[in-house]
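Deliverable D5.2: sample structural annotation.
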Amino acid sequence: SMIDWLLIGQFTVFGVIIPHTARSWSLQHMPAVKAAIIFNLGPFFAALFEYILLKNKLRFLQIVGLAVGFLGTIPIIAGPLMSGEAGSFSNMSLTGLIPDLVMLCAVASLNYSLLIMQKIVRHRGLPPFLANGFSMLMGGFFAFNAKLFVETTCLKGSLGIFAGLLVLTIIL
């Protein structure tokens, strides 16, 4: 139905396009370790979205666990600032934080998409593999077409080798 396609479209945007694009861009401007640590903030966004959108209440132990996890990430993310590796606070600009904020957007988007997937599977009754398959197909279509506008180089090498690797990737 139309509602199913709208939900799959939302899942494509928030679960495929935004997270992968934002993560790819951010990884060009930060170490992979820092990106992985930022991605571990996912449970905080999941809890926040469930609280706001689904009106789920957090129990005391869940709040304590989230607080401990969040406090544990602060020294890792802020470590370069405190050690002087990133320069002094007076020399810091917003540009140094932009990759971190973009990565946070990727994390938030991906966790929001999980709520959409939950709606698709539980409330609309679609099998998860079908919803995920359609969203990946649509996301790949949009990513490929966006590449045509952003990058100057086209496919290099043999089309046959590309097609073979693509089929192998799909099967795996």
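Annotation notes: The helical segments are 2-27, 32-39, 42-53, 60-83, 98-123, 128-150, 159-171. Confidence is low (pLDDT under 50) at residues 86-92.
The annotation will be released with the project's public dataset once the embargo ends.
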